[in-house]
Specification:
Blueprint: E1 6-10, E2 16-17, E3 33-37, E4 69-70, H1 75-81, E5 85-86, E6 90-95, H2 101-114, E7 119-123, H3 128-137, E8 146-148, H4 153-161, E9 168-172, H5 189-206, E10 209-215, H6 226-229, E11 234-239, E12 246-254, E13 262-268, E14 271-274, H7 278-282, E15 293-300, E16 303-315, E17 323-326, H8 330-344, E18 351-357, H9 369-380, E19 389-391, E20 394-395, E21 401-402, H10 407-416, E22 421-425, H11 426-431, E23 440-444, H12 447-461, H13 467-472, H14 475-479
The structure holds thymidine-5'-diphosphate and magnesium ion (MG).
Binding site for ATP: 95-102
Motif (RadA KNRFG motif): 253-257
Family: Belongs to the RecA family. RadA subfamily.
Length: 482
């Protein structure tokens, strides 16, 4: 039987198939399968007569040295890596093209080079002149970073094996690298995998830290960074809305640190600026005085982050009302809407609902539930929420507001930024020493209470201000005055 080494490999996730098909069943992407010769990537099994060597088995207890780390000189970057780059580790930084990966790494490498480390920056994408131009723009031309525009992994490994071992090597990007050992074209899954493997081997052997840059692509023209995610020690994604200045670095996987920390940056004309107090940034352009906005006191990793949730609830002209959400979980929104409808008598089936997290942040905490609910009800009844209040608490399916972790940290951050009151779960008030933040605490135990409070404030304020909205207001909102 002839050995068939050709197969169809998804350029997004790396799944292999015997024949071509339109959709990858593994990741669900369309039109991402490409024919590849996978023979080179399959290691030839060598039959060995050698008897295995014996090794010592260890106990769980015992002293191991801490992972040796190198600070990048950027606090926000160090926060996400868990305190700096670990020697001999390989880190993948993924993100959309143009988001600022090269800028971030140029800044970090320059700072480390200035601190006296041997740092090598290999650009497979840009010519040396372009990289220099960027460094000039960032005011970092004098940093002793060693630069090359190369794409052959064998050449890179040979060059770097000479002289002292570099402390850090940046490969920008892994998709432009190619190795002689496989036949496929650069950018295909097989090439990207084989190149990454060779570089990872080099890192483990020499103790140099390597950062691989990977572009995220939707069209499947080049292999996505997902195909190397499982091979590297840490995966970081650099995110942000193209139109906004904020950039968020998030750890997706980290063998040497936490995965819930975020680093916040702002893209300026002079490169990326670290944002040490994200709350100030996210609240800097607040829309004071409009209904439908609530400030959520959240926690990102170890750091409290205050962010504004914006909701718009408007009568729909469609058969099926729209539910659109940016920066939060769609199913979480559906759940909050269902609880509002089932337990609080808030009918939203005739309304389009839009929810947006300001500033381009993505929230993963269930603690944002009541902030979202408050913003939604506020928009529905056209009643502005108090501008000096923060909201946090999880909503259960029964409409009860459940406590969340780290109440004191949330309250302290809110007090620091000048907020005067907090709407929070009942049980959180007594339990922890949360009163010393100096906020007035409005503890609510059920969503019904919160909805009634917002509705009452709305009907008190503007009987005449929103005649159109009155029809949309459920009967119970119009009733309860005082
Ligand atoms: P870049 O780092 O090249 O992105 P990536 O490597 O992720 O593809 O950044 C590209 C964008 O950043 C580009 O649109 C210009 C912008 N930029 C600034 O706004 N200010 C700067 O100082 C620099 C260097 C880039
Ligand atoms: Mg780049």
């Amino acid at each position: 039987m002839a050995k068939n080494t050709l197969s169809f490999v998804c350029q997004n996730c790396g799944a292999a198939y015997n024949r071509w098909q339109g959709k990858c069943e593994s990741c669900g992407e369309w039109n991402t399968l490409a024919e590849e010769d996978t023979s080179g990537s399959v290691p030839v099994s060598i039959r060995s007569k050698r008897k295995g060597r014996t090794f010592a088995l260890e106990s769980l207890a015992g002293k191991s040295p801490d992972a040796p780390r190198m600070s990048s000189g950027m606090t926000e970057l160090d926060r996400v890596t868990g305190g700096g780059f670990v020697r001999g580790s390989v880190l993948l930084v993924g993100g959309d093209p143009g988001i600022g990966k090269s800028t971030l790494l140029t800044q970090a490498t320059s700072m480390m080079a200035r601190a006296g480390h041997r740092i090598v920056y290999i650009s497979g994408e840009e010519a040396i002149a372009q990289v220099r131009l960027r460094a000039e723009r960032l005011g970092l031309s004098d940093a002793p970073v060693q630069l090359a525009a190369e794409t052959s992994v064998e050449d890179i490994v040979s060059t770097l094996s000479e002289g002292t071992v570099p402390r850090l090597i940046v490969i920008d990007s892994i998709q432009t690298m190619w190795t002689d050992t496989v036949e496929s074209a650069p950018g295909t899954v097989t090439q990207v995998r084989a190149s990454a493997q060779a570089l990872i081997r080099f890192a483990k052997k020499t103790g140099a830290a390597i950062i691989l840059v990977g572009h995220v692509t939707k069209d499947g023209q080049i292999a996505g960074p997902r195909v190397v995610e499982h091979m590297v020690d840490a995966v970081m994604s650099f995110e942000g809305e193209g139109s906004q200045q904020f950039r968020i670095l998030r750890a997706v996987k980290n063998r040497f640190g936490p995965t819930d920390e975020i680093g916040v940056f702002e893209m300026t004309g002079l490169g990326l600026r670290e944002v040490t107090n994200p709350s100030e940034l996210f609240l800097s352009e607040r829309d004071l005085g409009t209904p439908g906005t609530a400030v959520f006191a959240g926690i990102e990793g170890t750091r409290p982050v205050l962010v504004e949730l914006q909701a718009l609830v408007a009568p729909t002209s469609l058969g099926t009302p729209r539910r659109a959400v940016v920066g939060w979980d769609q199913s979480r929104l559906s759940m909050v809407l269902a609880v509002l409808e089932a337990h609080c008598g808030v009918k939203l089936s005739g309304h389009d609902v839009y929810l947006n997290v300001a500033g381009g942040l993505r929230i993963h905490e269930p603690a944002a539930d009541i902030a979202a609910a408050a913003a939604l009800v506020s928009s529905l009844v056209n009643a502005q929420l108090p501008t000096d209040a923060v909201y946090f608490g999880e909503i259960s399916l029964s409409g009860v507001i459940r406590p969340v972790a780290q109440t004191p940290a949330r309250l302290k951050e809110a007090a620091k930024l000048g907020f005067k009151r907090a709407v929070l779960p009942e049980s959180a008030r007594g339990g922890e020493a949360s009163g010393d933040a100096g906020l007035s605490l409005n503890a609510v135990n059920s969503l019904t209470t919160l909805v009634a409070e917002i509705a009452a404030s709305g009907s008190r304020r503007g009987e005449s201000s929103a005649p159109a909205e009155k029809n949309a207001t459920p009967a119970r909102f119009r009733r309860g005055e005082g």
